[in-house]
């Protein structure tokens, strides 16, 4: 009987910890991604104003592998980016209001002012180190989870 009680306690503790992990995955400074390739998380800075979006990751000499910047728009749009004053190559992952990846621009070239269009119906853009999305398998159809997505329509809601 003691052994069953101990086992039950361990199981409940495990579920409690897992619940905490799921809760921690949905914070404003973290993005979770998944697909047939697996799952990954990135610590992100938020760019949700015109000024922050204009600055982006300009003048940064490095970006940690598990970090990125999440650009969030007020409503779905057709954004276009460039790499002026950006010192490192970046992957740009364009996401619709459901959290689905609709386009990935791989290895944007530092300092290039050629427009990089993201397509229509884009609510968020995740910028990560250049080449990382390809090496991980992040592509069209992958899903992003973040609390600024509407859980009612999100493919991978924060609060299922």
SSE order and pairing:
Elements: H1 2-25, E1 30-35, E2 38-47, H2 50-55, E3 67-77, E4 80-81, E5 90-95, E6 101-108, E7 116-117, E8 122-129, H3 132-136, E9 143-145
Parallel strand pairs: 2-3
Antiparallel strand pairs: 1-2, 1-9, 3-8, 4-7, 5-6, 5-8
Please explain how this structure is put together.
With 160 residues, the protein is α+β, with helices and mostly antiparallel strands. Residues 1-24 have low confidence and may be disordered. It is built from 3 helices and 9 strands. It has one domain: Protein of unknown function DUF192 (Jelly Rolls, Sandwich), CATH 2.60.120.1140. The strands form 2 sheets. Strands 6-5-8-3-2-1-9 form a 7-stranded mixed β-sheet. Strand 2 (38-47), helix 2 and strand 3 (67-77) form a beta-alpha-beta unit. The chain has helices at 2-25, 50-55, 132-136; strands at 30-35, 38-47, 67-77, 80-81, 90-95, 101-108, 116-117, 122-129, 143-145. 22% of the residues lie in helices and 35% in strands.
């Amino acid at each position: 009987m003691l052994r069953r009680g101990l086992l039950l306690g361990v199981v409940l503790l495990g579920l409690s910890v897992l619940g905490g992990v799921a809760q921690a995955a949905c914070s404003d400074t973290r993005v979770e991604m998944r697909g047939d390739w697996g799952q990954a998380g990135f610590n992100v800075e938020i760019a949700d104003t015109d000024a922050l979006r204009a600055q982006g990751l300009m003048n940064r000499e490095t970006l940690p592998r598990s970090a990125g910047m999440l650009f969030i728009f007020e409503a779905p749009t057709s954004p276009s980016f460039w790499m002026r004053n950006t010192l490192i190559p970046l992957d740009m992952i364009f996401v619709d209001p459901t959290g689905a990846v609709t386009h990935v621009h791989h290895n944007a070239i530092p300092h290039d002012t050629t427009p990089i269009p993201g397509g229509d119906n884009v609510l968020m853009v995740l910028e990560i180190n250049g080449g990382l999305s390809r090496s991980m398998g992040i592509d069209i159809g992958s899903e992003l989870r973040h609390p600024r997505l509407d859980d009612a329509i999100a493919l991978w809601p924060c609060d299922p």
